[in-house]
Amino acid sequence: MGIYLSSPKTEKFSEDGENDRLRFGLSSMQGWRASMEDAHAALTDLDDTTSFFGVYDGHGGKVVAKFCAKFLHQQVLKNEAYSAGDIGTSVQKAFFRMDEMMRGQRGWRELAVLGDRINKFTGMLEGLIWSPRNGESNGPTDDWPFEEGPHSDFSGPTSGTTACVAILRNNQLVVANAGDSRCVISRKGQAYNLSRDHKPDLEAEKERILKAGGFIHAGRVNGSLNLARAIGDMEFKQNKFLPAEKQIVTANPDINTVELCDDDDFIVLACDGIWDCMSSQQLVDYIHEQLSTESKLSVVCERVLDRCLAPSTASGEGCDNMTMILVQFKKPIKSNASANGQCSQSKLPETESKGEDVVELKT
């Protein structure tokens, strides 16, 4: 059986929500793929002042994406750095924590609870659907104690996922990314990438891969994985002499912090199934066009998915799973940048980043 269906599955999982600071809409669609491996999390109220949004694009199976959708935001909330106001450190620790939690018996059991089973011949985890909803799994977790048992030596799943999350607290936006899902902000209608697509041929990624004993063939890590950073993929993280951030593939996210102001319209988080079909600016332009006549944000997301869906599998583009979250800011945004909340234009780049560099919008 091939990786594509004979006809696409166009049913969509969509959701809307809001609080006094923002409103969001999201939609996901399986499309031409034989299974749905994307997951997401959307929590308008991670706590009283903070919202959390995440897109997770699984590969080799859906289980790691579902695991992150269930647990990653919990670990952000739980980390001591979060209580101290350091969101960047707390989210970085949470990315690494996902890999730690998926090892051993407890990790094996939790992956099974999410509806997956292990192929006894290949060790691969084969997933079933688990769909997170706003507010679900938004509570404290236990300390994930060590347990002895038949799976205590389970080194973790061979499948993996990208992770691109946006955390908003008051007028501060923190974006963390590992992989090639992407977060883009629209500022006065101009698209700026707030994350970098972690491909193996990027110089910094290539250097780490080679130093860790890996190689790149046909644009893929060790000839198989077309991402340089991901959560899961434990087969690329087996060097006991290297820390987690220096493994062949690492979960270490890029962190970007932006101070929002009234010039900021919305952010988009989406998997590469969207970005393969539209550039960041094209998507921002299309969203602005849709928002002139459509107020329901999930409907805007659904239209993007339909626009990106290929009519056939001939080219490959538009054939992937697709997930998109659109977060619109309510005005005025309370900003410390200036008395009237206007952005400092001197700190902005002149053009859209094409996924090669992270754009730091600091005001």
UniProtKB/TrEMBL annotation:
Record's keyword annotation contains Ubl conjugation: no
Domain PPM-type phosphatase: 23-329
InterPro entries from the UniProt entry: PP2C (IPR015655), PP2C_BS (IPR000222), PPM-type-like_dom_sf (IPR036457), PPM-type_phosphatase-like_dom (IPR001932)
GO molecular function, one term: metal ion binding
Bias-annotated ranges (Polar residues): 336-348
Keywords recorded for this protein, A-Z: Hydrolase, Magnesium, Manganese, Metal-binding, Protein phosphatase
Pfam families named among the record's database cross-references: PP2C
Region span, Disordered: 336-363
UniProt KW Transmembrane helix keyword: no
Enzyme Commission number: 3.1.3.16
UniProt biased composition (Basic and acidic residues): 349-363
SMART domains, per database record: PP2Cc
Cofactor(s) required for function per UniProt: Mg(2+); Mn(2+)
Enzyme class: hydrolase
Recorded family membership: Belongs to the PP2C family.
Name the UniProt record assigns to this protein: protein-serine/threonine phosphatase
Species: Erythroxylum novogranatense
Phylogenetic placement of the source organism: Eukaryota, Viridiplantae, Streptophyta, Embryophyta, Tracheophyta
